[in-house]
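Quarterly update, task 2.4: zinc ion-bound model.
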Amino acid sequence: MPRSLRLSTFVPPGFHVENAVQDGGVAIITVRPTSKKSGCPSCAVIAERVHSHYLRRLADLPLVGRQVRLVVIARRFRCDVASCRRAIFTERFSADVLAPWARRTARLDCLVHHLGLELGGRPAASFARRLMLPVSNDTLLRAVRRRGCPPFPTPTVIGIDDWAWKRNQRYGTIICDLERRRPIRLLPDREPATAQAWLAAQPQIAIVARDRGGAYSLAATKALPQAIQVADRWHLMENASHAFLDAVRKSMRQIRSAIGAATVDPALLTAAEHIQYEGYLRREDANAAILERAMNGAPIKQIVRETGHSRGLVRRILRGQRSDVFRTRESSLEPHLPWLDAQWAAGLQNGSELWRRLKRQGFRGCLRVVSEWAGRRRRAEKADAGSLRRVPSARTIARLMTTGRDALSKSEAVTIAAVEDGVPLLVDARSIIAAFHAMIRKKDEGELDAWIERAKASLVASLANGIMRDRAAVRAAIIAAWSNGQTEGQITKLKLVKRQMYGRAKLDLLEARLIGAT
Ligand SMILES: [Zn+2]
């Protein structure tokens, strides 16, 4: 049922409106507390004897597009408790309505605090003006600082990582409660001693997810010897990919000569058929490797694991269903290819014209067959002239070697086939890295020791050695449910807040804005 709207419903609870006037764009509302008494701040005994009155002027939430100034007719009370050292005190209100000494009502202060948290000082101030909230840049930041960080529940699973105050110059540390998914603390640097001091004060922490740098590992080992340390999965994956890139870099000399060898004979590269042949050779190699393992009595499961081929493929090969997979398609063009090649070399490269001339020679196929042949031929030549002559960068080769074969262009496929052919150690390294990634994805730590042994003798030995030194944490990373992924997410958020503050933020403000907001 609708009721008439009274002015006192606009002011904070516990006050009634004495009068309201308008002064320009500002509504001035005078209010009086409804309570007859107030608690003494020293002895907490309720006092009722009024000593005198005074006015408190406060900013409040805007009202229908106007700024509001609240004038509170407040009282001073006498405290009658003989032992109390305070004879007279100013009236106290509930802290969620009006804090002592405050110049804003609590409900306005809450808004100011959140504006400051979300937008930072300067942007929040200009936004606040539009909202009819008269607060300055400094006031906003003060509100954020004053409220600081809410106390956090004691964490048992934490993630710890570093973040850059200034790239390559100054770093801080962030600590996240992984169970509650929130940041709980920023530390001013990334020194092991600083992290250690903080961790030592939280002996209940059972799991520490950290990156693979030594500092936090050292700090956690000293401060929380009983806690399980978990290396960061994402970093592990990345370390592994990087190790492969390093292996490629180390092999660049061999790669150059392998690719050089592949480009010596251009005739080998122009024909699309040759690419098929390359694929055929590779398949034959794979077939041979699989058959050899089977001859030695290896079960299918083991072959799958060792070669990285799918179970279905291994089974097909063992049944002899993939021995003659040189997929030449029977083509009506076949008898005319020498003539076409000659015309092409002589400069006649127009598909329709070639088709007309072929027809005169008795060719009975349609135009499409010839124009497709010309198209293929043109693409192959372009590939030959362009990308094959240059040796791609190590990064590109690493990427191509780890990309699915289907996603490669023909010229890329030829390049990679040449690399694989010429630098078998790299193929080995690739399969070792793939096995490591698979181990993490499948959370299968049982193969870790065997993997380390295999990798130690390969181009990615340094990765293996690093992992061996940090074996327990890597093992935990493979099986544990926790990872530092969300800490990374919080760092992204932290960077955003930091950027809003134009890099001038102090740690307490940064912490208040990042952690106070969550
Ligand atoms: Zn008192």
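Highlight for this quarter: The two ends are 39 Å apart (CA to CA).
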